[in-house]
Amino acid sequence: MVRQRLVADKCAVTDERLGAESVVIGYRAQFRFPTMIHLFTVVARVNHVIEGDLRAFVDEVVALGLERKGRWRGVHSGIIALPVLVTEAADPSATELTQKAYRLNMAGFAVMTQPAIVDVRAGKVWTFRGIRIWGLAYNSLIKKKYEAYLPEPSAAAS
User: Fold this and answer.
1) Rounded to 5 degrees, what are φ and ψ at 154?
2) Nearest-CA neighbor of 24 among 49, 6, 50, 38?
3) pLDDT digit string (tens) for 61-119?
4) Phi/psi at 70 (nearest 5 deg)?
5) Strand partners, 13
6) What pLDDT band is residue 129 in, cutting at 50, 70 and 90?
7) Which of 80, 115, 120, 134 is least enclosed by beta carbons within 10 angstroms?
8) What is d(CA 143, CA 133) in angstroms, rounded to the nearest whole number?
9) Beta strands 77-87 and 111-113: pairing type?
10) How many whole angstroms separate alpha carbon 112 and alpha carbon 104?
11) Which helix H or strand E contains 23, and what residues bound it?
């Protein structure tokens, strides 16, 4: 379903390998005054999610975005990476990590990320849907993309 939602949002969608995982990558460039945003949504299905695996996946997705569009990063261009793990089981430490604005601790401000976990068994999408202070200008874009790609199950049923 995520693939269909990415296509509906006019993303270029590909099946690729990222590290050891088979992933679906949705890419879209979007102008958000005064900046061109390169948005990468990367979805992988895994058996179980622990905090360390989630952090490693986030790092891989950010590295992918930087590799592909990093030369454009700067005052008028930025990268937003949305790493999504779909699973049957997630450790509480991993889901807790998704409940706050994710910080990359990188110099600069031209790369942002916000991980999500889709727990199929629990019927729950774990991601931060609040307001981030650091990166406030792109907060609404991240929220809109996750609402479109990963609506809460109760919202998707209506």
Assistant:
1) -65, -35
2) 6
3) 999 988 888 665 555 678 889 999 999 999 999 999 999 878 776 545 578 889 999 99
4) -60, -30
5) 26
6) confident
7) 134
8) 14
9) parallel
10) 7
11) strand 21-32
Q: 43 pairs with which residues across the strands?
A: 24, 84
Query: What's the pLDDT tens digit per position in 40-51?
Result: 999 999 999 999
Q: Which two tokens stand for residue 33?
A: 């005054």
Tokens of 68: 């592909």
Task: Tell me, letter by letter, the H, E, C secondary structure of 78-129.
Answer: EEEEEEEEEECCECHHHHHHCCCCCCCCCCCCCEEECCEEEECCCCEEECCC
The encoded tokens of residue 2 equal 């995520």
Token look-up 């991240």 returns 142
Structure token digits, residue 36: 């061109």
**For residue 41, which amino acid is it?**
T
